[in-house]
Design a protein that fits this description.
Layout (H helix, E strand, L loop, with lengths): L1 E3 L2 E3 L6 H10 L2 E4 L4 E6 L3 H6 L13 E8 L5 E11 L2 E6 L4 H11 L5 E4 L4 E7 L3 H8 L12 E6 L2 E6 L8 E7 L3 H10 L3 E3 L1 H10 L35 H10 L4 E7 L10 E4 L2 E12 L4 E8 L9 E6 L2 E8 L10
Parallel strand pairs: 3-13
Antiparallel strand pairs: 1-2, 3-9, 4-7, 4-8, 5-6, 6-7, 9-12, 10-11, 11-12, 14-17, 14-19, 15-16, 15-18, 16-17, 18-19
Helix pairs in contact: 1-6
Length: about 350
């Protein structure tokens, strides 16, 4: 157990490599109750969120979700979030644990009077079930309806005396579901999944899995000095629907001029482990630093993410990373590092 964003979190159960492989090969589950969960309700919920979110969340139909950003006026990212539309006037936002208080305060300060907040952070528990057997396992022991959820879809289903929220989303690169129940029934949900064969997984495997999928992490790859175009995540920015959201003008300028740097995927060509903060060199000149790095259990080499000038972020560019004073040859490779095989 380790402290993380004000919570006590499991780093590992049986071991990071074993847990990582369980998710890649079968099914694993993560207690992600530390993630913030905030409902936005009311007649102005959709329009109010559209004025704050980079994505056109007001155009989501009930039962749909989408990745988005909350930005400041300069286009810097306050948080990367997932927005789900539960009903015409009801949305669920899943936000990063470290930013939950900041996001709640931001929403309270900027949403109109016709939109109300309901903080579900401490009253609910959240479990992410991931892997090629994740959906079939959940459908078998929770509800057959879960097998019919489309990617990024969501639903609320009866669970005991309460409600089970489920979304076809995740943070591992694998198929899977993220489940939310009342806190008092979280243990029962966990035990039912455990009995069905889901392997408990901790923060260590969550990090290696998301890195292989090249999914950025707030606080390492993302902060208020980073904009969505630098991350290569323009799909989460809607600039042409006529909505004037916070940060739109700055992001429109970035799109027109092009980002000054890009997040690139780096793969080691020799033995050595990249870590966050290590410098990146090109022809002996420092051109950036590793934002996330580590060993890939699936690929058997070290991989990392880092911001580079656009000409150097092209696939095939040869660079070096300073690993404890030793140059480690690396290469820019396509994103992501790993894709699950097609069924």
């Amino acid at each position: 157990m380790v402290p993380f964003a004000g919570w006590e979190m499991p780093l590992q159960y049986s071991g990071i490599i074993e847990e990582h492989r369980a998710v890649r090969q079968s099914v694993g589950m993560f207690d992600v109750s530390h993630m913030g969960r905030i409902e936005v309700l009311g007649r102005e919920a959709a329009s109010g969120l559209r004025r704050l979110c980079t994505y056109a969340v007001d155009r989501l139909a009930p039962g749909q979700g989408h990745y988005s950003f909350l930005c400041n006026e300069a286009g810097g990212i306050l948080d990367d979030i997932y927005v789900f539309r539960l009903a015409s006037e009801r949305f669920l936002l899943v936000v990063n644990a470290a930013n939950a208080d900041k996001v709640r305060a931001w929403l309270e300060a900027h949403l109109p009077a016709g939109a109300q907040l309901a903080d579900r952070h401490r009253s609910t528990a959240m479990v992410a079930v991931q892997g090629p057997r994740a959906v079939s396992t959940c459908a078998a022991v929770l509800s057959a309806e879960l097998a019919r959820l489309p990617r990024r879809g969501c639903a609320e289903l009866p669970w005991g005396e309460g409600v089970l929220f489920a979304s076809r989303t995740g943070y591992t690169g694998e198929d899977g579901l993220e489940l939310v129940v009342e806190a008092g029934t979280g243990t029962a949900l966990w035990r039912r999944l455990l009995d069905a064969g889901a392997a408990p997984c901790g923060l260590g495997a969550r990090d290696t899995l998301r890195l292989e999928a090249a999914l950025p992490l707030y606080g390492q790859d993302i902060d208020e000095g980073v904009n969505p175009f630098e991350l290569g995540l323009a799909f989460a920015v809607s600039l042409d629907d006529g909505a004037d959201f916070v940060g739109r003008r700055a992001l429109l300028q970035v799109r027109q001029e092009g980002p000054r740097r890009l997040l690139a995927c780096l793969r080691a060509r020799e033995r050595g482990i990249m870590r966050a903060g290590y410098p990146i060199y090109h022809d002996g000149e420092e051109v950036g630093h590793v934002t996330s790095g580590g060993y890939s259990p699936t690929l058997g080499v070290s991989i990392g993410l880092g911001f580079l000038p656009p000409p150097l972020a092209k696939v095939g560019t040869a660079l070096t990373v300073g690993v404890r004073g030793r140059p480690l040859p690396v290469e820019v490779v396509p994103r992501p590092f790993y894709r699950p095989p097609r069924p």
